[in-house]
Amino acid sequence: MQKRIIYLFVILFSFISLQAQGQLADALKKMPQVIAFKEMKHDTMYSESYEVIFKQLLDHNNPSGPTFPQRLIVSNVNFKNPTLLVTEGYGIWSGAPYELSRMLNSNQIVVEHRYFNNSRPDSANFDWKYLTVAQAAADHHAVVEAFKKLYTGKWVNTGISKGGQTTIYHSYFYPNDVDASVPYVAPLNLAQEDPRIYHWLNTVGSDETREKIKEFQLEVFKRYDEMMAFINNEIATDSLDMYVDAETAFEFQVLEYPFSFWQWGHKQEEIPAPNSSSPELYKHLKKVVGLSMYTKKDVQGLHSFFVQAYNEEGYYSYDITDFKQYMKKLTKSASNILFVPEDAPVNYNCKVNQDVYNWVQKKANNFIFIYGGYDTWTSTSVELLGLTNSVKMVKKGGSHGTRIKNFSDDEKKIIYDKLEEFLNVKVNRL
């Protein structure tokens, strides 16, 4: 089965790869781990860009065991320039340059996370036990080892959100792979459902905004039947195939509301008053927490995420105390563990993140941690003790979309100076 899949990849890509031109294409042809590659449209900063199918061991502790195809997007500037390794936490969405690539004029290698999208073992070898942070880190190490023979300049790894977590894990297991690490908005949860998130939601922002959020949630729950009419209509109109029943989806929507409100940078003035019409209330709820989150398509597409969350990386649940009297389905538990696939074991290992958390505080040098001040995931961010040369930059009022470009000039200077210190290269000021 495995050989047939690899053969199909080769047939699919080979006719394009044969036409590929340039130094990078020539190098890829000689790499034993490269199964196939095809040319991609690319930004003008790159001379070449290719979608690459890279052969990875399913179990890095078993060198003679089965492999799986891991998708990369490799974009070339110059073999001597810095190289940015993007550790995606999910699938690959784009090969567009990251802001760090423009700052460093770097080559860029984007790595799709194992068990997501096209980077999955075939059915004969699929086993959830190989979806671990250690195995994923070994994937990234294998990519670095292969491409360091080509790219001889400084190396930086980076990722956003779960991808930022993945960056931290990669550097924890393989601290000599890169010269600097820049994780964006990366939580480091210390429990299967980290209670620090509850405290955060009760203290973030102003008293007035938090009160308006709770009023909105209560009012929507009080109009349960009216809201369900909108939801059932949306399900029918859009032909949504739900992962859970409509009432359960609605209750999750309302409970998720404050988390998403702060995560994505919504404003107090957006929140409808309690006396607003039911259509207005539902429109706002849908804007902040879309019903599609609870469809089979979206949940099944994130099954690998939930397996990781509830076995190693941690996640969150919801406090239903203030709403229990209005709820019909989630009256005993409102845990996202519901979205772990039935065939996946759940055996949470608290030691992984605790060890990483301690390492970050005591030994993790050459890190720049980027966070948004209002982002809910900042509640479980790393905490530095001044024992390393790493820095944590928090954008005041920033969301989960916080990037280096969003900081003030003085704050950006700190980031630029740190990068130049870590890499000994000139950084482009954006």
Task: Tag the structure with descriptive keywords.
430 residues; alpha/beta; Rossmann fold; 2 domains; 9 strands; 39% helix; 13% strand; globular
Give an overview of the whole structure:
The chain has 430 residues and is an alpha/beta fold. The chain has 2 domains: 2-190 and 351-423, 3-Layer(aba) Sandwich (Rossmann fold), CATH 3.40.50; 196-339, no CATH class. Helices cover 39% and strands 13% of the residues. It is built from 14 helices and 9 strands. It has helices spanning 2-17, 23-30, 99-104, 133-148, 162-173, 196-201, 207-222, 224-237, 246-263, 278-288, 296-301, 303-313, 351-362, 409-423, and strands spanning 34-39, 48-57, 67-76, 83-87, 107-111, 155-160, 180-184, 368-372, 391-395. A 7-stranded mixed beta sheet has the order 1-2-3-5-4-6-7, with helices on both faces. A two-stranded parallel sheet has the order 8-9. It is globular. Mean pLDDT is 95; it is low at 13-20.
